[in-house]
Design goal:
About 60% of the residues lie in helices and about 10% in strands. It has about 500 residues and is α+β, with helices and mostly antiparallel strands. The chain has three domains: about 90 residues, no CATH class; about 190 residues, no CATH class; about 150 residues, Reverse transcriptase/Diguanylate cyclase domain (Alpha-Beta Plaits, 2-Layer Sandwich), CATH 3.30.70.270. The longest helix has about 45 residues. Bound molecules: guanosine-5'-triphosphate (GTP). Guanosine-5'-triphosphate binds next to strand 3, helix 15 and helix 16. This is diguanylate cyclase. It holds the Pfam family GGDEF. GO terms for molecular function: diguanylate cyclase activity. Its EC number is 2.7.7.65.
Length: about 500
Amino acid sequence: MGLERLIEKTPVVGLGAENGNFHGVRFPRGLRLPIIARTALSAWHPRIRARRPCSRSPRPFACRAHACDETVQSTRCAWACARIMGLPASTPLPPPMLKIDPELLNNASMSPHRRALEQGYRWLRFEDGLEKQFQAFFTQGHLVRVRVAAYVSIVLFIMFVLIDLATLPAYVSVRTVSIRVTLIIPSFIIVLLASYRAAWRPYLGTAVFTAALVTGVSTVAVIGSALDVGYQIPYEGILLVALFVYLIACLEWRRALLANMVTLFAFVVMEFTLQTNAQARLYQIIFMCAANGVGAYGAYFLEHSIRTTFLVDTLLHELAALDGLTGLSNRRSLNIHLERVWRQALRDRQAVAIAMIDIDYFKRYNDRYGHARGDAALKAVADVIAGLARRPLDLTARYGGEEFAVIWHNPVPGELQAMGEVLTAAVAALHIEHLDSDLGRLTVSVGVAIGLPCAGDDAAALLRAADEALYQAKHQGRNQVVVSEPVAALV
Ligand SMILES: Nc1nc2c(ncn2[C@@H]2O[C@H](COP(=O)(O)OP(=O)(O)OP(=O)(O)O)[C@@H](O)[C@H]2O)c(=O)[nH]1
């Protein structure tokens, strides 16, 4: 079949289709074409060239391709087609090489992590808050590798010093050795110190960057200082330094690129100033540029994968620990956290309190207003409850259905009733209409239990006590707080 016929036979499904097809053109199933060919076909398609508006999306290329099983390619293609056809491309470029399971994205709540995965990070940069988190993840994750790289560098440069002393004439080695000993080796010692001292840790990235810069420029100085006295020493060391900085030093790509570009610039200047052999100069500069190209390419993909791992890791953690509707912790996380807080409180001889919260007459609410509004009400109540956890060891969770729980670590026993009442008042103040409830609006009942953990006790007794208090609050007429008797010795 000729190309024209193939193009004619491929049906148009609308620009920016959201229905699982390739943007612009539905390609025959199983037809595997490189992205460039798909882009070209999409752009050539007569009906696309006629700029027919999409039947589903009011703006061509405006839709997200999250439902598409070719998310990455199709969005990229939409972008490329838009460029070819002079249309605005409203879909940002997604990550260029790693395909993320759409299931994972669809199930995760909308967060900066999910947004970054959907929109991509071609320039290896996230939005501000997320970038900070990533930096912490990157530094922590590479601590051991940075240390190993620093140790290896120190050993290597001591070895180079010995080789210089053994093989170079004294008038050359005095220059090369002094550069290596006074500049390069100390810069790696500083990296080692920064990796070991907690107070210096925030500056570890800067220390590695400085060491990379110092090593690169100093190595150029080593070669130049030898050339200056008419002695040609192997220049391959500078290639090794470039690749080391890109791939082993655990530097972010941008910083590695910057350090190497400065080094490359210094190298080119040195070659034009001191190298008298024009052919050697040409080869050395070409090899240096090639090493930078290879290193920068490898380092880019390495960092891109690390960024993807960071995002996917966080999303998976979120999916396992959080409730999808409300964003509060799920019951599993609550149980794990309760055990932890209980052990901590046992060690510190401090109290733990649990509040169980249940929306009143929620079945009737669902029956009257529908499940969708029920979900929205659950979310609104959850947002109020989320404000109840103020200390690091406090936790708010969706216990199940329309029931929530709060863990308070070391609360003041006399304030529990008031804390519960603040919550009931805040939910009532949401003014969510509930005509089948006594107050005409949505309310909650709260049961609170407090206990001082004793050896042999378990946290389940506290949960049961809070549940009984909640039952009592319901029994007494709802929209109220009942604080139970302390489970063990009261604080
Ligand atoms: N919309 C929505 N409803 C839910 C969800 N989970 C549980 N429910 C509903 O919550 C209701 C709970 O009803 P019940 O346990 O009978 O309690 P209730 O009607 O609140 O009555 P009381 O607790 O005695 O005041 C049920 O109708 C469930 O279908 C959810 O995720 N979304």
